[in-house]
Amino acid sequence: MEVKNRVLAIGASPRKNGNSDILLKQALSGVASAGTECEAIQLRDYHFMPCTGCERCQNSTHCSGLNDGMQLLYPKLLEARGLVLVSPSHNCNITAWMKAFIDRLYCLYQFTKDRPRQYTSSISGQGRKMVLIAIGEQPQYEIAIGLTMDAMRIPFEYLGYELIGELPVLGVFDKGAVRADTEAMEKAQNLGAQLALAIAD
Ligand SMILES: Cc1cc2nc3c(=O)[nH]c(=O)nc-3n(C[C@H](O)[C@H](O)[C@H](O)COP(=O)(O)O)c2cc1C
Predict the structure, then answer these.
(1) The whole model's pTM is what?
(2) pLDDT of 9-52, one tens digit each?
(3) What CATH architecture is 4-200?
(4) Which of 48, 100, 125, 198 is 20–30 Å from 65 (CA)?
């Protein structure tokens, strides 16, 4: 599949029209301001299972063990050189939706047969770049964001994405309250614009 100069933005909050949705739209408005094609999806709108570890993908090039909503998401991810991930902090970590999504990307690795297995990503070296946004209620990074940013950044770096920027937003609980955080709103938009420029290089 050809990789295009487009951006896929993935939201991982269960709360429709909540803070993550607002930040995601802000980031995408930055992408669009640079004239770059973009699409937003919400993981809560797709029915998919966590990875079952069936290993069938190791005998093919895709997830052949589970025929569910992820089959709609793989082509979107593979086609877009740019990626925006937005997750609220749930117990100092990404939401269960984001975790299940990331685990289902296991099929994008090829592993050797030795132990411990060596691995390569089938989507590395394609100029893929990402922006990460996380939001939590508490005012201190450790208990607001905690592992959330690392839990997105580390697996996607292994897959072959370069980090363009990340935005932790602290101290926001109420649905939609992030709109009042003008600094966060501006930063989210700027990150989107930076991502669009970065994938155009
Ligand atoms: C199950 C659950 C767990 C949460 N855990 C944390 C947490 O560990 N730290 C924190 O600062 N906020 C936590 N929050 C609060 C949310 O991160 C916060 O309200 C955020 O703004 C929600 O974003 P959303 O509107 O996009 O869902 C939690 C919320 C829920 C529902």
Answers:
(1) 0.98
(2) 999 999 999 999 999 999 999 999 999 999 999 999 999 999 99
(3) 3-Layer(aba) Sandwich (3.40)
(4) 125
